[in-house]
Amino acid sequence: MIPAATTPHLSRIPPCAFPPSGDTPRKRAFITGITGQDGAYLAQLLLDKGYEVHGGMRRNAQAERARLETLGIADRVILHDLDLTEMTNIFRLIRGVPVDEFYNLAAQSFVGASWEQPIYAGDVNGMGVARLLDTLRTLAPATRFYQASTSEMFGLVQAVPQVETTPFYPRSPYGVAKAYGHYITVNYRESFGMHASCGILFNHESPLRGEEFVTRKITRGLARIARGANAPIQLGNLSARRDWGFAGDYVEGMWRMLQQDIPSDYVLATGVTTPIRDFVSFAAEALDMPLDWRGEGVEEVATDRRTGRRVVEVNPAFFRPAEVELLVGDASRARTRLGWRPRVDVRGLAAMMARADYDAVA
Ligand code: NDP
Ligand code: GDR
């Protein structure tokens, strides 16, 4: 039985919507950031595995459940109000909803915005993790904990490829805050013996990716142009390289980390790095739009080879105050210990996203 929420508004869906079937008790998981890309895919994965899935969402005028609805699981998860900046609701939640596994995916996740709101980024992405860990330590120390760490912590290149032991040199308030979240998780594991693991995940994308991130901005823009729109896509640094995988593969790795007897930290990555401009070309190819690139720096443009229409322009407004130029991960530890492997390569990913956006624009 799920204990009743300690405040009337805390649970939006009545508890015990899904009583355990058969003799095996159902595992129960909590996902912060369940309304985000990874939260939605992870919820789907855990439901498929038979978990009772709870998730935290911020109170907004309009509840954001679009991704859960797209996956057809909005009615199968139990949602609770939760903001990581507020200790009291974290305390009430963890006291009221005991779970086997706790996945902390909530974050101010857009790197570009973290320069505009550096203190908020620190509060959610750094302090929020400490609030969760300390409450779990006090009220539910046996809960297994997953922290969404990130390749952004590597920042300025110290080694290629990047592994779990590569030194961090974050280049944004987002990355700095995530480094705190990472180390406080490691520290609580070492100080209090908590089963706490960090997934150091490289970029992972999907048709559910937020529209401000570059891959989705590209695939949505290309889909509109393929459907007849005239405005070219305005992008920033086209030379930055990312190691892009499919979000559906990466949530499987998160789950596998929490099934290990011994908690640890793992890189999840494809091992292939691709410049932004090549991602544009891969996505355009999937829409039968071959591109010609010319010019350099802010003069660089891409045109549709068949029509001569301008498809991409560089706009300096989208450059960042400090850039992460090269990310490429080595996921050998995850492969060996977790049996984890990415199944979608960058071309397949670009095509999947471009086609989904093309269909959505129709
Ligand atoms: P999204 O931006 O899609 O989702 C972020 C989630 O966090 C949303 O549900 C959002 O809620 C929630 N959130 C934001 N602020 C708060 C807050 N103050 N309190 C509670 N919830 C909050 O990100 P992704 O799904 O892509 O990423 C999931 C996690 O993994 C993040 O921590 C991200 O930093 C990390 N990560 C992501 C990678 C990627 O490539 N996708 C790579 C490495 C790490 P709302 O809907 O209300 O905005
Ligand atoms: P990132 O993803 O910063 O790696 O963080 P994003 O897609 O925002 O940027 C990737 C690279 O593309 C360059 N770029 C642009 N980026 C955006 N958003 N918009 C543009 O117009 C544009 N033009 C060029 C950026 O400069 C950058 O080099 C993501 C997030 O999911 C984080 O939460 C996560 O931790 C990391 O991935 C791993």
From TrEMBL:
Its cofactor is NADP(+). Transmembrane segments: none annotated. It catalyses: GDP-alpha-D-mannose = GDP-4-dehydro-alpha-D-rhamnose + H2O. It is an enzyme of class 4 (lyase). Keywords: Lyase, NADP. It comes from the Bacteria. This is GDP-mannose 4,6-dehydratase. It comes from Marivita lacus.
